[in-house]
Amino acid sequence: MGSGDDTHVKEEAVAPSDSSSAQAGKVTTHRAMARSLARRSRVKVDTVYESHIAPIFQGKALAPSKDGRHVPIQACHDQPLIDERRGHSYISNSIRSARYTPWDFFPRQLWFQFTRLSNFYFLCVGVPQTIPGLSTTGNYTTILPLTFFVLLTMFKEGWDDWRRHKMDKVENRATATVLKSRGSLGRGHDAGGKPWSRLWRSRPDSKNTEVSRPSEEVDAELSWTHVQWDKILVGDIVMLKRDDAVPADLVLLHASGEEGVAYIETMALDGETNLKAKQALPATQKQCGTIAGLRECKGYVAVEDPNRTLYSFDGRMMVDDYTRPLTLSEVLLRGSTLRNTTKAIGLVVNTGEETKIRMNANHHPKAKKPRLERYANQVILTLIAYVVILAIGCSGGYLLWHRQIEQRSWYIENAPVGFEEIIIGYLIMFNNLIPLSLYVSLEIVKLCQQWLITNDVDMYDEVSNEPMRCNTNTILENLGQVGFILSDKTGTLTENVMKFRKLSVAGTVWRHGDEERPGATPSSRRTSHEPRKSSAVKPSIEVTEVPFDASRDLLRPRPARRSSSRPRASAARTREQSTIDLISHVKAHPDTSFSRKARDYLLGLALCHTCLPELKDDGSIDYQASSPDELALVRVAHELGFSVVARSTHSITLLTTDRNGDQDKSTYEILDVIEFSSKRKRMSIVLRCPDGKVWLLCKGADSVLIPRLKQAELAVRTSHDVRRSTEISRQLHRRSVQLERRGGVEGRASMAIERIRRSMDAPRSRSQPRARSLAPPARSVDGLQVPSFNRRQSQEQTPTLDDAQTFARCFQHLDDFATEGLRTLLFTQKVIPAAEYTSWKKLYQDATTSLVDRQERIEEVAEMLEQDMVLLGASAIEDKLQEGVPETIEKLRRANIKIWMLTGDKRETAINIAHSARICKPESHMFIFDALKGDLPTQLRNAAETVALDSITHSVAVIDGYTLSVVDASSDLQKQFYSLIFALSSVICCRASPAQKASIALSIPQHLPNTLTLAIGDGANDVAMLQSAHVGVGISGKEGLQAARVADYSIAQFRFLQQLLLVHGRWNYIRTARFVLATFWKEMLFYTPQAMYQRSNGYTGTSLYESWSLTALNTLFTSLCVIMPGIVEQDLSAKTLLAVPELYAYGQRNSGLNLRRYLVWMIGALAQGVIIFIVPWSIYAKGSEMSDNNLFALGDLCFTIAIVWTNVKLLLLETHTKSLPIAISFTITFAGWWAWNCFLSAAYSANLSPYDIKGGFFHGFGKDLVWWLVFIGTISILVVMEFALKTIKSALRGNKWWQKWGGGMWEGDVALWQEIEQKGGVQGDEDDDEDQAYEERFAAENK
């Protein structure tokens, strides 16, 4: 059936009766062929470069070593170690993020510059022009300006790259503490590398960077020494202090932590926020803590060859004739930072560009080109064809004239000119139709655009004192054409600050945090991101009614969330009280069931962690944790009166306060700690309580703990019921959203025009409520009612719930927390009989000491203990977003920009943040692709069928790094995957390595060639992605400034993307596109009379215009009219562009510069150029007695009309923003032209040439009234024509044919919004604030 239908469709598509379809098909075929030809040409050029030119600069790949890299464990080396793969010493530890070196800059830049179509064209024209006798316009008028422009562009690129070298130097000259012999302190340090590089490094450094470090341990020959990073060698022994950055890839030999544990922060490496524990092997931990021990240590390390894999490491260590395996747990990678550890000592095994973080970097990024250049190249190709046709036509005209007139004229019959010479002469004469000044002026425009962006106060962050920085101005217009944003998570979307927000215990929800206090105003919530003046936290609670009978409440469709993402609290369903009341209730009634459950839960917060307390100088207690989540949990326990005051490997000391205010200190013995892992998704601790009982506390993901509860069957069934009810509610919500959107087209800027017009025509008082009704919130009258707590509540009034009700409410709370984007954890507990624990402990000891499959055995034994547990409650932690992230993402989504989140964090965390940031909406349909679940093609196929069959308004794909590597390994999977995800709204990629982030940035343009990508990140692990995307935006955040230095642009906060893209991006795109169009338009306008005049001079190449005026044309008289609008033009205000993000589609659709728009402008230039020549020729030259009958009078008249009309059209008629710079530019140009005429009339001497200029303007044609009347009349004709065309366009704005073929609907939308601005502008977000305030007042009145 399917094949028959397809055949029928094909037959209809090619039916001869449908001529229009056939014609359209031919046009489409021709376009496809042209694109295919261009693509094949680019591929051939790239292939030649990659195969013949790139290897000269990049070197060849190294063969793998036989048995890995062998590094001896030795206190000091007299000579650098030799790399067997190279045959000389290992490479230095210096890194280079710059694109060029002094050796390859010039040849690579020459190749890059002359692969640009315009430069190649001018080179082809300029070289023949230097041959004497061929050019009628001089021999060096093209090649010299081209050389100057190319050198200027190369200088600018070199300047940008030199700044990158300076940034690299900052990192390379950072210092680390290395063990060195005392005799080497005054000598230069050979950093290894290629043999010739030692010539440069043999000179001593002017700065004494190797200074002996004072130490409590003194050795006669060795000393801990400050060494620059770039001088660290493979085999060096490095000592790290707390908060030191790791300078190279190290194998951990010794750590000051208990049992040799060192805590490492890898946020800049893989984006993960939690600290990782690294542990030195016992053999080196005991011996390598001192210089004397390092002297005596004999052994070596054999590790794998350098590679980019971040999540695995293979090696072995031989010490004292014993071989021990090395894994990632014993390795410190460059890019990480030592935390919570006093001292660590490591052996350098990889340096510089061979470290894992640099292996993941983009070592040879290509210079980025503006997307408009592609369309400008298409324009140039058409102009080249036009110049060739014009030259051939004029040359053919000369042959006809030669036959008909020249051969019959006795005075020139023996002076013919060859066809080759005449056609080359015409090619050189008309080559200025493609002006070289375009690129010089464009550089001026972009420099001014760069200055305007960097000085925008709306992108200045007062907190960090960071302005917007622009590292390159080459691709400014790309900011207005972005289709995909690839965003990092940690430090980019979030502040990496965890805040405890809610807890669920005994079926009740308690809200924690001063920002959510009752009666908080919208303004107070907006400023909640600001730091508190006091460190004290005033918690509050929320008790929520959730009936167990979900049929009447959970199945009710929920209202859609507003784009502002501000929380809306229903007064009828929410009652908030301070947590002081909760603690007071627990203290006042300690024997109630509720109080016991609450106390156990708070004990679980205070005890189930690995945090270490620290006593500050002021006597307060703070905590150090391996995870910010754990830190938030232990801090909230401290705030609620359960303070951890001491902790060792064997005990935890807890300080609590009783009802009388007396403090009680109790000690819990730590029996076992079963660590969290990505596979287990939970962490457990076994304690011996002060009363002697053995107590298991466990926290983790609800998906793994619910099946392990005591009443697991009931818990699982209840969880499924709650999830099913919630999913039904979300489906109903999705359907309601779909029905709302069927009445219009989503993404159209014109959809809001009528609303704006109505708001302007009938302004509404601020006290007047909105016309739409706000139904009072539904009140739940059935089910269990949970009363609020207060100090006077009696013990008998405390609610008591059975297990089923507690499960239902707790699981509903978990779902609500996740919907709000909070990170959730479930807490459970279990009292273990002494006999059971003793038998289990033996199995656990065997597992922890096993040499084979240790981790697997530990997990199996832990599984035995973590069963039949009792539910304590749940927690909700907010990974605090940066200010304005949800609003920014919503506006970018409305601008038709798809947002992908690429992070190294785990899946659950990424999904939670996606909900908080509104990358995922409540009604989103989520597809999770996991290769470990098997049959990945089927997963992709099912998702594609779901997207095709269901009308899904918003869909999100979630994929991890391993699954992405499986996709990349198969071309079929790649095609299937990318064809699917481009149809989705967003993508979340978790556990992604830096190389995978860069690969995604490169893959999107390969599958969608017309799409432009923007990458944004703040860490060193984002550098490769920033360099691979079309536009790289760095955030100057907490992970350092490396991303901000390497990126094309740097901002301080994610929310500034609104201003950068929607405002400056669109403005720069429109300015640059109009600049290019105007430049080509004026050249066509000026050279059309020149071409028409050739018929009157026998096609001899005589110029209609005076040569000096023609030379100064693009410099003095038509430069400001294209440069100034390119700098200051604003077709719409910033307020309108931010309020209506849909207008951003103008640049995405390339409506400013495309072939259709270019042809319209060129046809207009041809028509106007014909009028500029025909009217003066017919009226002034032939229709009247000329007072000045030399050629200059006619040529100057045509030239004057063209100059005045060019400035009138471009500065007064086409420019929307009539600002002071525009007025000044027009005045200067207009007055300057008449001053130029006066100068020429006085400067020239009298001669008998056709250009008798001397005194012409003063005594000749300047006194001729006809000359002036023709000038004024021709300008008037052109102005009337222009206004008539604008009137016709305005009348046809709503016509469907015109929207498709006559200018595009987005141009019409812009005109409508301009009219709206003239009538009063756009109200923007003020209406949303008014709606917010009104709804809050309504809720308060109906409490």
From TrEMBL:
The active site is at 488 (4-aspartylphosphate intermediate). Residues 220-293 form the P-type ATPase A domain. InterPro entries: ATPase_P-typ_cyto_dom_N, ATPase_P-typ_P_site, ATPase_P-typ_TM_dom_sf, ATPase_P-typ_transduc_dom_A_sf, ATPase_P-type_domA, HAD-like_sf, HAD_sf, P-type_ATPase_IV. Pfam families: Cation_ATPase, E1-E2_ATPase, Hydrolase, PhoLip_ATPase_C, PhoLip_ATPase_N. One of its GO terms (biological process) is post-Golgi vesicle-mediated transport. PROSITE patterns: ATPASE_E1_E2. Residues 1-31, 181-216, 511-577, 755-801 are annotated as: Disordered. Residues 787-800 have a biased composition (Polar residues). It catalyses: a 1,2-diacyl-sn-glycero-3-phosphoethanolamine(out) + ATP + H2O = a 1,2-diacyl-sn-glycero-3-phosphoethanolamine(in) + ADP + phosphate + H(+); ATP + H2O + phospholipidSide 1 = ADP + phosphate + phospholipidSide 2. The chain crosses the membrane at residues 379-401, 422-442, 1108-1128, 1158-1179, 1191-1208, 1220-1245, 1265-1285. It is an enzyme of class 7 (translocase). It is a multi-pass membrane protein. Residues 765-780 have a biased composition (Low complexity). Its main location: membrane. Residues 1-13, 202-216, 755-764 have a biased composition (Basic and acidic residues). Its cofactor is Mg(2+). Residues 1044-1293 form the P-type ATPase C-terminal domain. This is Phospholipid-transporting ATPase. It comes from Cryoendolithus antarcticus.
